[in-house]
Design a protein that fits this description.
The chain is α+β, with helices and mostly antiparallel strands. It is built from 14 helices and 26 strands.
Length: 513
């Protein structure tokens, strides 16, 4: 009994000492707690909760990746890293190079709770800062060995977690039922976003959309409709082609699809909270883009177009006419044109068709359709004596196109321009504090394209070396509201560019108090 009495007395003394701490000392202690312990501490009493709320008055966005080949251990490593300091997650993005998405989603939900919106996606590669040492690096899913004979699959996981006071975040998916048209699901996606944002903000324009898509026919027309429907101030970035799972904030787990339903897109929607406290600071979203495509003087008009009917990995067969000529060229003839221009090195140069797509868009049945023109790239993949074969769909007879090639000099100059833009961001009159960054990089860029390490990371590393940023390699990058422009785009002010190749689309999240 005596030992029990002494323990009880000691416990009471400890509680008195803790309760008597001044707020500054308590602030310094709580600031060093990991996220889970911090959450428990905020429930001790009103005084502690007040200090915890003061600590979390500033936003956070943290990314970390792991190369651990064991998926479960790698997930644990990145979760431990991003949750090593106080944070109340508003959203989570997890990207893996391969593996079980459901396992990763379950692991994250167990650690952050069932009310946090989560997207898990399979990507072509990962870049950012490693969880184990904070060093920058990149991991591609497939890497060819030095002998050039085999391909090695590398596992990596990137985790990004954000706490953005004054912003509400949720996942809005696009699920396509069998027989449902792209126009219908596109309209529904736009209206779902508008309805969510209206409830949260009082108006229909989200601050930012981060999108993850599947490789289907439906993604491109829906993305163009979204580009048409959203006002210019809405930032739209993402990865068009991949695989994903999602969990909305009001769902305990990933929603299982009905038979014959298919995933098309999932969007993290960031909406400004109309009930944000007046004294709270403001979150800002900005984008910048580094391009690498250079046009060559080969222009055509699509003559006959046929689209493959495969549900995934769509492709297009076409013939074309040279600009101003009546003769219809088959695939071999078009390929000969390109080959002659490139000095018989066509496949070494990885040519693309840049197609100008002028289409009518509207939302719902009551709105009068309007024409919007978009430039979309399609990779040249083959030819025969009938057709030229290119990746992707949505090309129509009468569309004009030009040949484009990746250009290292263009990419280097554009990277420098992006770095300059980020430098200018720091010198704005309102002095924004950059709290997070994410980059969507074309899968053909990276160390092998630039011949040096961490080139696509360099705008963040040069301007914000301590920033815990992340990024993924994509097969088609999504980006708009881009403030780095080249001469060609200035001449073609009415041509929209939302889908890219060989580019790096940077999302910068900042805060002003």
């Amino acid at each position: 009994m005596k030992g029990t009495s002494e323990k009880s007395k000691k416990k009471k003394i400890d509680m008195v000492l803790i309760a008597s701490m001044n707020d500054d000392l308590l602030h310094n202690i709580l600031l060093r707690l990991p996220a889970k312990s911090f959450a428990f501490a905020s429930c001790v009493n009103r005084s502690w909760n007040s200090v915890c709320n003061r600590i979390l008055s500033r936003p956070k966005m943290v990314s970390a990746f792991s190369r651990n080949p064991n998926q479960t251990r790698a997930g644990g490593e990145v979760l431990d890293k991003v949750l090593s300091k106080p944070i109340r997650p508003d959203f989570v993005i997890a990207n893996i190079t391969y593996g079980n998405m459901e396992e990763t989603l379950t692991l994250i939900t167990e650690r952050v709770g069932s009310r946090v919106p989560i997207i898990v996606s399979v990507v072509a590669g990962i870049l950012g800062k490693e969880a184990c040492n904070d060093n920058p690096g990149e991991v591609k899913h497939h890497v060819t060995t030095d002998d050039g004979l085999s391909v090695v699959a590398n596992f990596a996981i990137l985790l990004t977690i954000g706490y953005l006071p004054g912003i509400k975040v949720d996942v809005i998916p696009v699920i396509q039922a069998k027989g449902e048209s792209e126009a219908d699901i596109g309209d529904k996606f736009v209206m779902d976003i508008r309805n969510y944002v209206t409830v949260v903000s009082g108006h229909a324009a989200p601050a930012c959309l981060i999108l993850f898509g599947e490789d289907t026919h439906a993604t491109e027309p829906i993305l163009h409709k979204l580009d048409y429907a959203m006002p210019a101030e809405t930032i739209i970035v993402g990865d068009q082609i991949g695989e994903f799972l999602h969990k909305c904030g009001n769902e305990p787990r990933n929603v299982q699809l009905h038979k014959d339903d298919s995933r098309v897109l999932a969007g993290l929607v960031f909406a400004r909270d109309r009930h944000r406290p007046a004294q709270a600071g403001k979150i800002h979203f900005d984008t910048a883009i580094s391009r690498a495509m250079s046009s060559v003087d080969l222009r055509y008009k699509a003559a006959n177009v046929r689209v493959s009917r495969r549900p995934r990995c769509p492709s297009t067969l076409l013939t074309a006419k040279r600009g101003g000529e009546a003769e219809v060229l088959n695939g071999d003839q078009i390929l000969d044109d390109i080959n002659d221009f490139l000095g018989n090195q066509i496949w070494e140069n990885d040519p693309y068709l840049g197609v100008i797509k002028r289409r009518k868009y509207s939302i719902g049945l009551e709105e009068k359709p309007k024409i919007m023109a978009s430039l979309v790239y399609h990779q040249v993949t083959g030819a025969d004596d009938q057709d030229l074969l290119v990746s992707g769909a949505e090309i129509k007879t009468g569309d004009y196109f030009q040949v484009y090639l990746p250009d290292l000099k263009v990419a280097e100059a554009s990277l420098n321009a992006v770095s300059s833009q980020l430098r200018n961001l720091k010198s704005k009159p309102n002095k924004p504090e950059v709290i997070g960054g994410f980059v969507f990089v074309g899968s053909r860029r990276g160390d092998s394209f630039f011949g040096r390490q961490n080139a696509d990371c360099s705008p963040f590393l040069e301007n914000f070396p301590e920033l815990p940023f992340g990024g993924i390699f994509c097969n088609s990058e999504i980006g708009r509201s881009l403030f780095v422009e080249d001469g060609e785009e200035k001449k073609e002010v009415n041509i929209r560019r939302c889908l890219h190749v060989y580019s790096s689309v940077y999302l910068i999240v900042s805060y002003t108090s």
